[in-house]
TrEMBL record:
<keyword id="KW-0472">Membrane</keyword>
<dbReference type="InterPro" id="IPR012902">
    <property type="entry name" value="N_methyl_site"/>
</dbReference>
<keyword id="KW-1133">Transmembrane helix</keyword>
<dbReference type="Pfam" id="PF07963">
    <property type="entry name" value="N_methyl"/>
</dbReference>
<feature type="transmembrane region" description="Helical">
    <location>
        <begin position="12"/>
        <end position="35"/>
    </location>
</feature>
<protein>
    <submittedName>
        <fullName>Type II secretion system protein</fullName>
    </submittedName>
</protein>
<dbReference type="InterPro" id="IPR045584">
    <property type="entry name" value="Pilin-like"/>
</dbReference>
<keyword id="KW-0812">Transmembrane</keyword>
Length: 149
């Protein structure tokens, strides 16, 4: 007697295969989101380090740090503006988007020049997507005037 059964997958085997594929896709999406978050946080930290280097150079040239009113924070860039001088310190492309603990579509930055007219100290801070705050500068004070970009 000859068996005339066709070799095929059963419904249960197909459902298990679809379940496994679904789990793999969901894990992949989660991993991609983690990588994107890491990239945005790296861009934020890079912008902060660039600003810190610019501040050191400015302080060497002028023996003071720029006033708060001279540092302009926009979603596109951090700019120094004094009189007729308007200089982009660092571009913020990609460093202002993404979720953080207070907003789903912006990043909080803070710049403070402390020490009165002499501008002896400064503090620059950024809030990362996990809610951690990273600061640079030589001031011991915490930032109080946050801007969401």
């Amino acid at each position: 007697m000859i068996n005339s059964y066709k070799k095929a997958f059963t419904l249960v085997e197909l459902m298990i295969a679809m379940f496994v594929i679904g789990v793999l896709i969901s894990l992949s999406i989660f991993a991609i989101q983690l990588v994107q978050t890491s990239v945005r946080n790296t861009q934020r930290l890079d912008a902060m380090n660039t600003l810190n280097l610019w501040m050191a150079s400015y302080h060497i040239d002028n023996r003071t740090y720029p006033r708060q009113s001279e540092i302009i924070l926009t979603p596109d860039a951090i700019t120094f503006s004094k009189g007729s001088i308007n200089e982009i310190i660092v571009e913020l492309e990609g460093a202002t988007t993404g979720a953080n603990s207070t907003s789903t579509n912006s990043t909080r930055y803070c710049y403070q020049q402390l020490g009165g007219v002499e501008g002896a100290t400064f503090k620059f801070a950024v809030e990362l997507e996990n809610g951690n705050i990273k600061e640079v500068g030589n001031a011991n004070a915490t930032c109080t005037s946050w801007m969401s970009l």
